[in-house]
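Entry 12.
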Amino acid sequence: AVEVYTGPFLDGFSLSDAPEFEHWADGQRTRLSDLYGEALETLADDAEGQGELADAVAWWKARATHDPFDSRVALRLMQALVATGNPAGALQHAAAHRRLLAEELDLELPADLAALTERLRSEPVPPTGQGREPLVRKTADRPLTAARPGSDRTASPAQRPSPTGDPGPRPRRLHLALRYGLAAILLGAVVLLAMRLGSESLAEAVAREMGRQEPGNSALPPPEQRTRSTRAYELYSAASDPDSLRGDRSARRSLRSCQDAVALDSTYAAAWACVARFALRVMLDPQMSGSTDGLLAQAEAAASRAVALDGSTGMNHATLGVVRLAGFELRDAEAHLVRATDLDPDHPLIRQWLVGLYLWTGRTEEALAEARRALELAPADAAAKAEYARALAARDRCREALDVLEEIRDLEPPLLRRVSIAARCHARNGAWQEAIELLRAQSHRGKVGDGLEGYMLARAGRIGEARALRSHLVDRWRQNGTGALGIAAVSAGLGETDEAFAWLDRALEDRSLVPYEFQYQTLAIIA
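Predicted 3D structure (tokens):
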């Protein structure tokens, strides 16, 4: 049942001058949504009863995504996360839920959920290696791997459904046949209902509407146009300029525009996804002080809302996947990103985000394949070229990577990752001075630019300069509580391994370590 449900019933389908139809469709939409939620809870309860705790977490996450405002479900998800040894994940979800309730409903956390949150905060965090997977290691016999939520290596995918609603290995045409066959049955039921009600006008309205949807015409407008508010659409469109992601101020403006769009139309799924993407981008602003947990919680709530409103759109799943990647929930991230490619296989940005996931999980060959596909889909896109260069560098093909980066050298506003990728390549070749000059010439250094420079200085033998820069970074960290990743990089360059890993732990806490762009380059260099 959960595989058949792909989102709200007849979402986006409406008939003019047919109030009977709208009333009936609303009732069906609510009924099917409730049944879907009940099915997810049954699967979660069954998984818990059988001791399959990871599967239970995945099902509860799917249930929370379906209705992110349900505090009872939020509590069950937190309890499931704690049971798997992930109290940090539980606290992260509590923060996201608190923010959602406050901003959307002007409510506080219920007492039981608030009590669990307080208890988790007061309990000692389990040391690395107990209750969570190690995120960064200098050496490894095999790369980290990611699996879709609910996967079981001992069971055939055909024997157990996926918490993400993925149809698994069954042929895609069978899945489509089931989906569209069900749609045909439901639309047939509409006509029968019209006949039963004696409403000839309703049947005519259905026929007229279906006649507009000839083969070649989409039954739904593009995701960005699925709003009845012209102003909301204008705000979303203004925020969606790719150049907005390259500057801190423009990213903040775009975030506000997307927030204004959802304030005008709270059912505008594309705008919710836009809020999530720009909240993540603002996290990278070097002027941000203190913890960025609030922004991550906002991104989680917005992306979950987008998928709950429209689970049939690839970008919504991809956005939620990137948010989960930012929280190091690698299995969930992959599940949503892979689902996104199933829904929209020709979207270059989704492919680019998969590159980042595969690099973070050590699957460099898969990353290169996705980067190549993204570039094929958008051969003139600067971001696609940068991701291709990044994947080439990860495969130690730096000469080719530098050639690709040369094509976007004069881009304005610049891509932050271009310099860090090039610096990594020069570092791999031992050209420390060239790497240092590249970093110093960059006007926008991001949160870890100084740390990368300190690493290069140390490796170039300029120990005094490296130590002075690290002292400056430590002072800045004490003042604003963020930037630990840069300090870890300098410590690694100085050969102080224990110190580097201690600062990496702090980087996880202050969110200066998130799986993005140039930060991958930092770890790739120091690991």
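Annotation: The CA atoms of residues 226 and 415 lie 31 Å apart. Confidence is low (pLDDT under 50) at residues 125-219, 517-527.
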